[in-house]
Amino acid sequence: MASGVAVDDNVVAQYQALKLGHQFRYITARLSDDLREIVLDKTSTDNDYSNFVSELPSNDCRYAVYNFEYTAEDGGSRHKIIFFLWAPDTAKVKAKMIYTSSKDSIRKKLVGIGTEVQATDRSEIAHSAVLEKVLRK
Questions:
Q1: Mean pLDDT score of the chain, rounded to an integer?
Q2: Predicted structure pTM score
Q3: Edge-to-edge strand list for the sheet holding 62-71
């Protein structure tokens, strides 16, 4: 189901800076106040995954892209770009519906995502849960 929500060009530009320029560890995006556009919320160079998780609001939805670093089974260091749809159970129903129905709009604009995670509570975005998902693919 498409929601008709547009994606601000700055979201795509900052995603490209993360993906190609490695300027950020993660970016977050949110719906604008009028619910018509997905706009950039934050960019960060912080390498601490727990800080990323703690910055996601406990009662509102967000989109996020994280450059996830992990050790592969062969012992080598790897990076995978992960797209998150954060829709906690405590968020308003309308917000969860709009974020979920608008997910395809932002995903189509962000070419090169390695893994997608849809989470409703912090256990689903814990480092170990995300690592397990990354290693499966």
A1: 94
A2: 0.93
A3: 6-7, 37-44, 26-31, 62-71, 77-86, 115-119
